[in-house]
């Protein structure tokens, strides 16, 4: 477990929090591994009845730590790397999962939310999936789930153009389930967690599984399809040039 992911057990509540605020909670390979391990382990622990995902500091997450990710770039055919393990853990999770987001939720900071049962967002939160800007393709089965939620045209707006969107729009198409006023996110989350923990635990788990229904295989299949393209893109000239531009722009600020 890395110090950049807080793993805190509060009775039946497992709290996972991204803890790299000085880097806007940019996710490293080690952080992916820690999250994947924690979510996978919770499946075999009947004492865990709710998992929450949060972020320390001013942002939920600024997305991938690109320098770290490119350094640990997967080899052809490699499917057990931490990021893919996390995505599969999210897709097969059987414990009610709540995300509480604020600030910026970039890249996987948005796509992981498609696998949460409830998403709480503080006013002012900004969601963005800038995959094509970096020469990449969507991941986390977002190319399947987002069009079903928002419609194909809005999905194209967010995935092809990479346009950001706010809490009101996210709530309108069904990504966000609860809104919180500025400064009230933690209290809102505590209330929702308390409600879930007050319900009979087996009924909660069974209902969560029923809600996921028969879509799990389809989601996993789409993830594998996306992951194959994603891995290929990582070795492309387009990606190298796009990431060089990203770091040059950041250095110029």
Please tag this protein with its features.
2-enoyl-CoA Hydratase, Chain A, domain 1, alpha/beta, six-stranded mixed beta sheet, 253 residues, three-stranded mixed beta sheet, single chain, peroxisome, Enoyl-CoA hydratase/carnithine racemase, ClpP/crotonase-like_dom_sf
Task: Count helical runs.
Answer: 11
Largest sheet: 6 strands, mixed
Order of helices and strands: EEHEHHEEHEEHHEHEHHHH
What is the strand tally?
9
Write the CATH fold name of the domain at 5-180.
2-enoyl-CoA Hydratase, Chain A, domain 1
Radius of gyration: 17 Å
Structural class: alpha/beta
Give the fraction of residues assigned to helices: 40-55%
**Beta strand %:** 15-25%
- Give the C-level CATH assignment of the domain at 5-180: Alpha Beta
Give the full name of the CATH homologous superfamily of the domain at 5-180: 2-enoyl-CoA Hydratase, Chain A, domain 1
Strand order of the largest sheet: 1-2-3-4-6-9
Estimate the mean pLDDT confidence: 93
Low-pLDDT runs: none
CATH architecture annotation of the domain at 5-180: Alpha-Beta Complex
Outline, from the CA principal axes?
globular
Report how far the terminal alpha carbons are from each other.
33 Å
Pfam family, one: ECH_1
GO molecular function: delta(3)-delta(2)-enoyl-CoA isomerase activity
Main location: other
Protein name: Enoyl-CoA hydratase/carnithine racemase
């Amino acid at each position: 477990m890395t110090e950049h992911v807080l793993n805190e057990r509060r009775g039946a509540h497992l709290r996972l929090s991204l803890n790299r605020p000085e880097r806007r909670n940019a996710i490293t390979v080690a952080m992916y591994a820690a999250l994947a391990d924690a979510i996978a382990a919770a499946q075999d622990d009947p004492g865990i009845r709710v998992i929450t995902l949060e972020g320390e500091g001013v942002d939920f997450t600024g997305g991938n730590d690109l320098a770290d990710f490119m350094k640990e770039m997967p080899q052809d055919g490699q499917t057990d790397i931490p990021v893919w393990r996390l995505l599969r853990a999210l897709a097969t999770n059987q414990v009610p999962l709540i995300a509480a987001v604020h600030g910026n939720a970039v890249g996987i900071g948005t796509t992981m939310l498609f696998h949460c049962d409830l998403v709480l967002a503080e006013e002012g939160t900004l969601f963005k999936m800038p995959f094509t800007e970096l020469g990449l393709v969507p991941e986390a089965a977002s190319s399947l789930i987002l069009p079903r939620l928002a419609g194909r045209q809005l999905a194209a707006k967010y995935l092809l153009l990479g346009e950001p969107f706010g809490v009101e729009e996210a709530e309108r198409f069904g990504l966000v389930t609860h809104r919180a006023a500025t400064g009230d996110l933690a209290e809102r989350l505590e209330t929702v967690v308390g409600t879930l923990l007050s319900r009979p635990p087996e009924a909660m788990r069974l209902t969560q599984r029923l809600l996921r229904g028969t879509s799990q295989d389809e989601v996993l299949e789409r993830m594998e399809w996306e992951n194959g393209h994603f891995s290929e893109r990582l070795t492309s000239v387009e990606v190298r040039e796009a990431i060089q531009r990203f770091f040059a722009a950041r250095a110029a600020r």
